[in-house]
Amino acid sequence: MLFMSLEVYFNRKLTPRAKADEEAHSLIILDEVQFCPRARVAIKHLVADHRYDYIETGSLISIKKNVKDIMLPSEEHAIEMHPMDFEEFLWAMDDEMMMPYIQLQFEKRKPMGAFHRKTLDYFRQYLIVGSMPQTVAKYVETHDFEKVDEVKRDILALYRNDIKKYADNQETKVVAIFDEIPGQLQKHQKKFRLSALQNEARMRDYSEAFFGLGDAKIINCCYLSIGLKLNEVRTTLKCYMGDTGLLISHAFDERGIVSEELYQKLMFGKLEVNEGMLIENIVAQMLRASGHRLYFYSNSSRTSNDDRMEIDFLIAKPITTSRHNIFPIEVKSGKTYTLTSLKKCIAKYGNQLSIPYVLHDKDVREMDGLIYLPLYMTPLL
User: Fold this and answer.
1) pLDDT tens for the 381 residues of the chain, in order
2) Which of 82, 124, 87 is nearest to 103 (CA)?
3) C-beta of residue 339 within 8 angstroms of C-beta of residue 331
4) What is the C-alpha to C-alpha distance for residues 4 and 18, in angstroms, rounded to an integer?
5) Beta strands in the chain, from DSSP E residues, in sequence order
6) pLDDT tens digits along 329-373
7) Looking at residue 299, what DSSP letter applies?
8) pTM of the full predicted structure?
9) Separation of alpha carbons 294 and 159, rounded Å
């Protein structure tokens, strides 16, 4: 009766697997499944019926709230989704040729040459528009940054509404963290200071709120690593927005909309302040979308200048060996910069380090044992 009702309602004949040789069989999507817990329960029987395939979608904030009193089916296979990556953005911009070329140049460690400027322009559009499918679709349709910003603000409002509806007794803490992210990222040292939320605040009081935002893909948490062995310390972290386009609208919210002038400055790299936080945020976003867990290293030693350093990101080699397992990454947004911390890190922890990378807005080059990569090559690390 369910299948017959679907056919009548949509005026579309369902094709079961048994006839798949004749034509593609039907896929049934249960959208916003969190609003119908009984549909999730029914999946067990629908899968056992074996006539059709099923996809369930839903908001991660609310989908975990609406599971009380139901038996979650073991037939569910969860797929972790992230915002659109840079390659998917290029596809949306009707360019399927650029990413294979970027990959080839990365593997050969060769400059992009004449194509560097074009790819950097794509990257800056990706940074500004963001990677939420709705905002990308609006940009492809209009190429109007202000119209895109309206869509982003709708998404931010949806986040807030979901937090209020589903955060239980953590609502105040979750909102406080969410609102504080831009301010924390504007600091030179971007470690999240709980004192900004409440006097004498402790991580044990806020850990559930951080976890909830991270689990819902609203934020990306980057944890302190001790001794460069990727032993994380969950009491010290940096907190990035899951989508950099949303961060721009969240951070620059005068009059409720980001001006076209600001977007133009971002597009051409002319923003005098705050660009560093956006560049570091999008690197975190791209590393996370590539499957990396996020770590950083910081040592504020008051006794030894050689020990005092801060490395933006550490990622692990896919295969662990006895030595050289960690890739240290420094992210640079300006035209001129120093690499003092990275050089100290190499001198002190050389046996643990693999290739040191510097991500910047210039082309590929190798110098003094360092590999300099344009920011848009981050997904290939």
Assistant:
1) 999 999 999 999 999 987 656 668 899 999 988 788 888 888 889 999 989 999 998 766 555 555 566 666 778 888 888 889 999 999 999 999 999 999 999 999 999 999 999 999 999 999 999 999 999 999 999 999 989 999 999 999 988 887 777 666 778 888 889 889 988 898 877 888 887 787 777 887 888 888 888 888 899 999 998 766 667 777 788 999 999 999 999 988 655 566 777 777 777 777 766 788 999 999 999 999 999 999 999 988 888 888 889 999 999 887 877 778 899 999 998 788 889 999 999 999 888 899 999 999 999 999 999 999 999 999 999
2) 87
3) no
4) 17
5) 27-30, 53-56, 219-226, 231-241, 295-299, 309-316, 326-331, 357-360, 365-367, 370-374
6) 999 987 888 899 999 999 998 888 999 999 999 999 999 999 999
7) E
8) 0.86
9) 23
CB atoms within 10 A of CB 256: 9
Say if residues 296 and 284 touch (Cβ distance below 8 Å).
Answer: no
Residue 58 CA, chain-centre distance (Å), reads: 18
The encoded tokens of residue 197 equal 């939320």
Beta-bridged to residue 329, according to DSSP, are 313, 357
Report helix, strand or coil for 220: strand
- Residues 6 or more apart whose Cβ sits within 8 Å of residue 108: none
Q: How far apart are CA 125 and CA 360, in angstroms?
A: 16
C-alpha distances out from residue 174 to 156, 162, 320, Å: 14, 11, 36
Strand partners, 310: 298
Is 131:247 a contact under the CB 8 Å cutoff? Answer: no
| Alpha-carbon radius of gyration of the chain | 23
User: What is the helix, strand, coil percentage profile of the chain, to 5?
Assistant: 50, 15, 35
Supply the DSSP string of 74-141, one letter for each residue.
Answer: TT-------S--HHHHHHHTT--SHHHHHHHHHHHT---GGGHHHHHHHHHHHHHH-S-HHHHHHHHH
